[in-house]
Design brief:
This protein is mostly helical. The chain contains twelve helices and no strands.
Length: 299
């Protein structure tokens, strides 16, 4: 199996595990604030990836140049440490579907950043595929919200701060993807992710302590269990596969593959959450698959 195909498969697996994480959180309920949620996810996932990386059947290489460590550290700051928290704040202000739609345009930003900083060529067909895939994903997300039995609370007035936070989330995710692409050069993806999660776990500790001292409620046992399970799927497994996907297929394609979690989550949502599937979701699914196919074959 060539590296490109391997990277595509890992990217799909990453999306599968990330989708499972989201469904678990929604199914079991959520009583954990953003900083606490990300802290638990990081602290649960770190020992798991350490066990995998340091098992006697492989030779770990955690000694890297300082520059590489800094780049990988920044990637996890922009992703889990900053992007996720900003996203949760955004969805609290403008609603899940709107925040998700804006934040998940990040593959477009990633593509242009890759052109600017990584020397990737602009290919019109690939750009068309990116746009088509993102449009399908956004369409599915909004239609799932509209057909859900739970009504999403919408603000009476336009919340400019909420929209700004969603835009910042988009840029943060794109920057994280570009930084991982640079950081994994000449580095094993599993070792790179150990460094990312180690630095992320250390960096988020002061934020957790500060938020708790400012009145953030300590998570309940149920909330901790929920986020621990979600962290296993969405951080330990998904992030490791995602880093490897970035290495083997590049920032743009891995961003596209990684953004299809709502499509992958659809069968789980239908089974566990009793969400409806209609012809509009079917159109969104077709558009997403077609967009990904165009992106993969372009150039």
């Amino acid at each position: 199996m060539d590296d490109f195909t391997f990277g595509v498969i890992l990217g799909i697996l990453s999306s599968v595990f990330f989708a499972i994480q989201n469904v678990i959180v929604k199914w079991l309920g959520e009583d954990v604030r953003p900083v606490a949620a990300n802290s638990i996810r990081l602290w649960v996932s770190l020992p798991i990836v350490l066990i995998i990386a340091l098992n006697p059947f492989r030779q770990a290489n955690l000694i890297m140049p300082l520059e590489t460590i800094l780049i990988l550290g920044l990637s996890v700051v922009f992703a889990a440490g900053f992007g996720d928290v900003i996203y949760f704040l955004s969805q609290d202000r403008i609603g899940v579907s709107t925040a998700f739609a804006i934040a998940n345009t990040y593959p477009i930003v990633t593509y242009f950043l890759a052109i600017l900083f990584l020397g990737e060529l602009f290919i019109p067909a690939r750009f068309l595929g990116v746009i088509l895939a993102i449009a399908g994903i956004v369409f599915i997300s909004r239609e799932q919200r509209d057909s859900s039995s739970e009504e999403e609370t919408k603000p009476d007035n336009v919340d400019k701060i909420g929209y700004l936070l969603a835009g910042v989330t988009c840029v943060s995710f794109a920057l994280a993807t570009i930084l991982v692409d640079v950081g994994v050069t000449g580095v094993d993806p599993l070792d790179a992710n150990v460094v990312r999660l180690t630095l992320g776990s250390v960096m988020i500790a002061p934020a957790f302590y500060w938020s708790n001292s400012r009145g953030m409620p300590f998570p309940s046992r149920r909330g901790i269990k929920i986020m621990a399970i979600a962290g296993f799927f969405g951080m330990a497994l998904a992030s490791t596969f995602w880093v490897a996907s970035v290495k083997y297929v590049g920032a743009t394609l891995s961003a596209i593959i990684g953004s299809v979690a709502p499509l992958i989550a659809l069968p789980f949502s239908v089974k566990l959450l009793n969400e409806n599937v209609n012809w509009k979701i079917g159109i969104g699914t077709i558009a997403t698959i077609l967009g990904i196919w165009i992106t993969l074959i372009a150039g």
